[in-house]
Amino acid sequence: MDIAMDAKALNAFLSQEFEQVAGQYQVERADAAGVTIRLNVSYDHLRPGGTVSGPAMFALADVAIYCAILSRIGPVALAVTTNASIDFMRKPEAGQDLLAECRILKLGRVLAVAEAMIHSAGVDEPVARCSMTYSIPPKR
């Protein structure tokens, strides 16, 4: 399947539409197989004990799935999450960025379903798995 937005276009879109958080995330890959998004982990993402917080991991999954959908349908800023489920499986590595590998499971006219696997950079075992459904607004 062809993609509508590559990594460069997605990064530009995030910078323009979500400037408040764009510097936290970097789209590293966007192709027919899915996307890879990096969370540049900083002090703001940590919880006591020096691990990345659950809300930070959830946000990474949400951004990754949003970008995966946009990579297919183009810059539709009003696509929104309608359902989400996340499993936290192990503690992320201290001092490491997180990577979300995302793939689209189903892309319809109105709904999209996708999955993101989150890993600490350089570590094979996932720290979290998330599935989400997005609502795609009608074309105008």
Description:
It comes from Paracoccus caeni. This is PaaI family thioesterase. With 140 residues, the chain is an alpha+beta fold. The protein has a single domain (7-135), classed as Hotdog Thioesterase (Thiol Ester Dehydrase, Chain A, Roll). 22% of the residues lie in helices and 40% in strands. It has two helices and eight strands. The protein has helices at 7-17, 54-73; strands at residues 25-31, 34-39, 46-47, 51-52, 80-88, 98-107, 111-120, 126-135. It has a six-stranded antiparallel β-sheet with strand order 1-2-6-7-8-5. A two-stranded antiparallel sheet has the order 3-4. The two termini are 23 Å apart. The model has no long low-confidence stretch (mean pLDDT 94).
